[in-house]
Amino acid sequence: MSEHKYVDKATGTETVGHEWDGIVELDTPMPRWWVWTFYATIVWGIAYMILYPAWPLVNSATEGVLGWTSRGELQKEMSAREQQLEPIRAALVANDINSVAANENLRNQAINGGASAFKVHCVQCHGSGASGFKGYPNLNDDDWLWGGDLEAIEYTLVHGIRQPDHPDTRFSQMPAFGRDGILQPNEIQDVVSYVRTISGDERPSPASERGAVLYEANCTICHGADGKGDRFQGAPNLTDRIALYGRDRASLTETITNSRYGVMPRWSERLDPATIRMLAIYVHSLGGGEAAPQPDETAETGTGDEQS
Amino acid sequence: MNNPDEILDPELKLYEARKAVHPQRIDGTFRRLKWAIMIVTLAIYYITPWIRWDRGPYAPNQAVLVDLANRRFYMFGIEIWPHEFYYVAGLLVMAGIGLFLVTSAVGRAWCGYACPQTVWTDLFQHVDRFVDGDRNARMRMDKAPWTAKKTVRRLFKWGIYLFIAFWTGGAWIMYFADAPTLVVDFWTGEAAFVAYATVGILTATTFIFGGFMREQVCVYMCPWPRIQAAMMDEKSLQVTYKDWRGEKRGSIKKAQKDPAAFGDCVDCNQCVAVCPTGIDIREGPQIGCITCALCIDACDRVMGEVGRPRGLIDYITADDAEAEKAGKETGPAWKNLLRLRTLVYFGVWAGIGLAMLFALGNRTRLDLAVQHDRNPVYVQLSNGDIRNAYTAKIRNMENRPRQMNVSITGLPGATLWEGGTSRPDQQTALEVTVPADSVANLRLFIAAPETTSERDEFVMTIEGAGENAESDSEELFFERPKN
């Protein structure tokens, strides 16, 4: 049987030799073009394995004679992009921040770049919408501890807040009135009542009147007699509707008893001046940015010189 | 019984090589109509991109321009933005229904006269005739061995094909960029790669489809003939050989001997000779018949020469053919055009057209789209007010810069200002200038006093200043923290 070739009469093609109820299957040869395409893919495959990384080894793969790597490609694209951005980065730091931000094109570039940098370096504390959390300020609002004009924001970014090894850092230190025994717990409650009165959260009461006396003695030096705070010292305004750690009694009690010492890195250690500038312009654009102070106020806001 | 040898006609092969078609020159009513349509369609195709249309300094001055790069479509006085693409979709729907209408009324007229494949095939067949002579000469040339003379002739002919094909592709790209600039760029090597690629592809397809594949495209590749078969009915005109009048066919000599036994067809084969798709219409309606009616011209001429009435092959509906066969009177052909089916098609077609015209006449050339910031949704300000931020996209679809007024209504005590500026005391409207033919991105802040309401609805409106005071508005929410 096996020697006999079965040939279909109608087409002249060999059959596979089986028969099912008179039905036979043609053993049609592969079309030429298909076979050649198949050979071509084999050649292609071998060439590819020689030219590009292919065979997995223990720690890496064979390198391929072209030396191509996906990381190398990324590196190339990144450095090409860096080169494209170089003139913009140079222009951003070529002048003082206020005149840089006055240039609409540079300002827009900075806002876009700042938004990207913010998502990498700042969202961990300030949140992706820059609206902060308890203890981490909301950067969208119009309340600033250390000043909300471009120079002040940039200074804060450059020097950070409460960086112990850095003399130029933003530093304020509120005593831990309770822990250090300066005020007794009932006195602290009186001060809380007073603070909540000037912020409009409570009506005046005997407790707040007692608190007013204690406030005058202990707090005015930083927060001012009117409770509006002092940006030079980083003392918050107690009369507004925004409080970094909350305006409720429990939070205020905790603040006065143990004090709070929020910190922010000094970004000059980690970021280049152009990126810091972009971040400053971006944060300034979020809605709370303030105009540059008039010259006679400069000393008062104490934003200091630009970073070197 | 199931042996394929018994079923298959030994003559019928599974595959048969194409037999080249060498249509003979013919003149007549329909040939002239074909010439006219060819000239008109080709003229439209080649001239349109060169028509200028002044749109002022802010827009291109090409009458018909599909500006893919800037995502604008210009057609004379009409400018279409990407979001208005439904006008183009509407045009395509109209083209589709138009084809239904034409097909149900006059059969495959599209195939016979207006289809680019038909027009270019016709053009290439004229080239064949110009280079190699008429039908018989061409057939001889085809069979002749490949001598130097034949080779030169063939190369010359294919050169003309290529020339036509190149100009076909070359004209196409003119619709997608400023034509005079593009021509210069194209020949100086400065045009975009896609321009060269498009010309290359269209040159190749024209060269192959028009020069070599010809009727095979219609018979084997094109879906339209199949669809058309479903669109036609017994009241659609089609090219018909009137067998009841023509049969039994025979030469004049034979018919003279026995006039009673023979019909009008003198079996001269002229209808076959002139057919551009190489079919014999006397075999009845078939997929290869594009109803170009050249066989009618050929037959009419022969009938005139032998002194018999014209119209042995003619445009006739299936119903009329039945009636004529039965010896009944048939009404005038135009009556078949006015029937429910064609009227419904026409009504839908015209309805869409009118609706689009109406919509085009009434569309506003500005548009407001506002997005409320979701992160953060609201910001508490130090004086207790709540601020929400919005990103407004303002489209100015006119070819001039426009002053627009942005205002809010329905939010008590609210103040509106633009991002990057400081908060004013009290303001619910501001002026912006939107550049010509572009979208302005506007960052807007709205502050309102703290209330117990978590969510207030209000309306933002933009109004174009000046002579054309259009406006657009959007309902928005103002959100506050939960109390």
Automatic annotation (TrEMBL), chain A:
The chain crosses the membrane at residues 33-51. Its main location: membrane. Residues 109-199, 206-287 form the Cytochrome c domain. GO terms for cellular component: plasma membrane. InterPro entries: CcoP_N, CcoP_N_sf, Cyt_c-like_dom, Cyt_c-like_dom_sf, Cyt_C_IC, Cyt_c_oxidase_cbb3_su3, Cytochrome_c_Oxidase_Subunit. The keyword Coiled coil does not apply. One of its GO terms (biological process) is oxidative phosphorylation. GO terms for molecular function: electron transfer activity; heme binding; iron ion binding; oxidoreductase activity. It is found in: Cell inner membrane. Residues 288-308 are annotated as: Disordered. Pathway: Energy metabolism; oxidative phosphorylation. Binds 2 heme C groups per subunit. Its cofactor is heme c. C-type cytochrome. Part of the cbb3-type cytochrome c oxidase complex. This is Cbb3-type cytochrome c oxidase subunit. It comes from Parasphingorhabdus marina DSM 22363.
From TrEMBL, chain B:
Residues 253-284 form the 4Fe-4S ferredoxin-type domain. Pfam families: Fer4_18 (PF13746), Fer4_5 (PF12801), FixG_C (PF11614). PANTHER family: FERREDOXIN-TYPE PROTEIN NAPH. One of its GO terms (cellular component) is plasma membrane. The chain crosses the membrane at residues 33-51, 85-106, 158-177, 193-212, 343-361. The keyword tRNA processing does not apply. GO terms for molecular function: 4 iron, 4 sulfur cluster binding; metal ion binding. Keywords: 4Fe-4S, Electron transport, Iron, Iron-sulfur, Membrane, Metal-binding, Transmembrane, Transmembrane helix, Transport. This is Cytochrome c oxidase accessory protein FixG.
